[in-house]
Every structure is written in C-alpha cells, then in structure tokens.
UniProtKB/TrEMBL annotation:
Species in which this protein is naturally found: Acinetobacter wuhouensis
Entry keywords, A to Z: Cell outer membrane, Membrane, Signal, Transmembrane, Transmembrane beta strand
Cellular component GO terms held in the UniProt record: cell outer membrane
SUPFAM superfamilies in alphabetical order: Porins
Assigned protein family: Belongs to the OmpP1/FadL family.
Signal peptide range in chain numbering: 1-22
InterPro entries: OMPP1/FadL/TodX (IPR005017)
Topological type in the membrane: Multi-pass membrane protein
Record GO terms (molecular function): long-chain fatty acid transporting porin activity
Protein name from the UniProt record: Long-chain fatty acid transporter
Amino acid sequence: MRINKIALAVMTTCMPITALYAAAMDRSGQSIAPFLQPNNYFEAGISILDPTVEGKEADVSATRRDIEDMGNDYYFPSAAIKLQLTDNISFGLLYDQPFGADVAYSGNNIFVTDSSTTILDQKLLTGLIDQKFASLTAEQKVGLAIQGVKGADYLKTPAGQAEFAQTLQAYNNNATAKAQIDTGVKAGITQQVDATKAYLGKGQTSAKVDTENLSMIFGYQPIKNINIYAGGVYQTIDGSLHLRGQATSVYNGYDATFKKDSGVGWLAGFAYQIPEIALKASVTYRSEIDHKVTTHENVSSLPALVGLGQISQATADSIAGTQKKTDITTPQSVNIDLQSGIMKDTVAFANIRWVNWKNFAIQPYQFGAISKIVGQLPSVAQPNGFNLLKYSDDQWNATVGVGRKLTDQWAGNVSVGWDSGAGNPITALGPTEGYWNVGLGVQFSPTPQTFISGGVKYFWLGDAQGQIASQSGKKTYVADFTDNTAITYGLKIGYRF
C-alpha cells in the first residue's frame, strides 16, 4: 500500500491539537513533528483553553462551602520553520510555551480572605490561647492584669510594686480574685490573638506562570530513512503568586513575583521513516533547564507570627529583610511519536509522553524560612520545612488517532487521549488528576503547498483532592475537585516550499 505525496503532506500535518491541559504545568506537549516534515516547511498556530475546575471544601477544612471555577481561560501561540539545507542536513526553529498556569479563586471559600478568616483555624487558635495562658506563672498573670489597666511603666514605681505584691497575695489566697484576674488575662491574650487579623492578606489566592521555548535543531540524514537530530533550547520563565484565605494559614498575605529569567538546555532524538507508506517513528529527549529566578517576596503575616509567639521580632525582621533568588528546574521529558499508513489515504498515529515532575519543586527563600518554623508545630509535623510547590508522581500521556484524506483539499482526524496526572492529593494550585479526552480536527488545503487546520478537544478532568503546601506528602487535604471538564480549540496555518 503506497500513499502519494500530496495525501501524505495533508495527513501528517492534520494531527490533533496540543494537549493544553496535561498534568502539573505541562501545556504544549513539546512536539517535534514540524521538524520532521519533508523538504522546507513553515507553520504557525494558536491554542485556546476554556477549563471549568470547581470543587468543595473537604477533609480537614472546618466548613463545607462550594468552590467556584478557579481555572482561568488562556491561550498561547506556537510557530516552527524547518529548512532542508542539503540532501543530508536539515535545520529547524521551534517556538512554543511548554509549561504554564493561570488560576484564581473567587467567591466565599477557604482560598479567599473574608471577615471570618483567621491566621489559624479556630481550634488551633483556641489551643494556642490555652497553651499561652497555661505557661504563665502567677506573677506573670498578676503583672499582665495590672499592666492592662495602668500600663507597663506603673509596675516600676513604688506604688506599682506595692499594688503588685497586694494583688499577688489576693490571687494566691482568694478564689474570686484569682478567677477575675485569670478571666481578664485570658481575654487580653484572646484580644492579642484576634489582632493578628489585621496582618492577613486581602482578596483571593491566584497564581500565574509563563514559559517560552525556542529550540534550534540540526538534523543529519545519512540515508533517506534515518534522521539523527540534536540542538539547543533557550527558555524563559516568570510568574507571580498570591496566597489568601483560611486554607493558607500563616501564609495568608504571602506574595511572590518571579522576574523573567532565561536558561539553556538541549534536546536530541532519532527518527526512522518510510515516506511511501507514511511510516514514521521518532524518539526525542529534552533535558532539564535550570533557572535562578530573581524573586521578590512579601509576607504580611510575619507580625502575626510574632504576636502568636511563634517567632521573635528579630527573626521576623531578618526574614522580611532578605531577598534571594529561587532555584527552579523545569523537567526533563521524552516524546515518542508513531504513525503509519493503514489503508489508502488513511494514517494512524500515536504519541506517548513522559515528564519528570516527581523531581520538580519550588521553595523561595522567605517561604522556606517560615516553613521550617511552622513545621515544628505538631499540627504541621514537617520539621524540615516544606516546598511551595511539589508533585509526587511523573506524568505519562498518550494520544492515539486516525487521520484521513477526504478529498484533494479536505482531510480530517479523530483522536483519543489519556493523561496520568502528577499525583493525588495534589496542590490546590492545579487540582486535577490527569484526564481523558476526545478530539476532532479538520484541514483545508487550497493548494498542495498550503493549508489551514483547526481542531477541538473535550476533556474529562480527573477528580483530585487539593492540598495546601504544608500537606504535601500526606493524605490530608482541604478541598475536593470532581466532575470537571475543559474544552480546547486550535488553529494552525502551514506552508511547504
């Protein structure tokens, strides 16, 4: 069975649109397909995502309110040019945006600060108040009671010292006096704890991450069936984060801005093809890319931690006064692409992708410094601290489908896709566990050299349990996200020359 060159050109570009809603922050899928097109080739495209990610407070959350859609719509472009410089040497430039996130909570839930939000949940606050009160001696309680009425300097005066001695004797020998002083002191501690609300952040939890890749690839074809290729990858990354609401606890009011940073990596691969029957198989490896990102952090709740007695003022000043770069390493990955003619004018295709999210972690300096302090609390039990973002599993992704030439100018394809997710429970900044999807694509070729293609995919997103950072690695979580979906649209133009 042979496939003519026009049909081959049609079907090998009429592939399904990008995954767009893969595990963790994977977005473009980092396809190498444009570089493997015959002769000279150019394409440009745009993809749009419209997700619906809703949930409900659950597990350790004290309330059970609904969580409105927190997944923002977004779009990103892509482009590629491939030149066959000689019979044996090819060159390509590929632009895409491989990783990203755009989420924002809204409404009335644990990721949005409102009038009822406290720095810790009420049970923990009550425990801290009781613990702080129980740690006071009789002398300290009496001193606090007098200070509350007449000020700290009064105790330094002869009259103050005399009143202190008299009140202490009454405290130790009179049950009524003791009860009154205890009530007043505990009320003062409670008031001090309640005052920490003033340091909490306003608004909602949100996060945005953008990356851009430019891959420069050289290929060597010792014979027409084999293509060995490698090249460098230039990548930029930037983003921002705002943590709010009861769920974020002592980080309510944490803001981080990650300034754009660039890094360099590499890719290498091997492809085998038999053009006459549209057979093509390729394996492509992409390396990790290291970044040291200038990060500006602000933790408005630091004074609240001082007020709760969790850190000293000197420690708070030291943390707030230190800004450091954040190490971020985008993950390595492997793509396997397969296609073959299965009958006249019909091609079957498959893609398998692995991304090493299990080794991915982000811990900005101030965030990490606070995590090592609050991690000592029995309720947190992370004495070595914890990361702002971390995933527990690697991602596996697979797509299979069929493309068919319908007429000399029209072709179409259908596909089915699956994604494993990057673990569950998972960060509430991306609370889905993989997906299943179905896709439909169509292509119009006004000439054998040009085409316009479009596609749509519908996703059934996997149910997930959303965690806050301090719960990473545990089974506890704060919200359930179930029965969510997404739809994506893609448009691409191409030219062969």
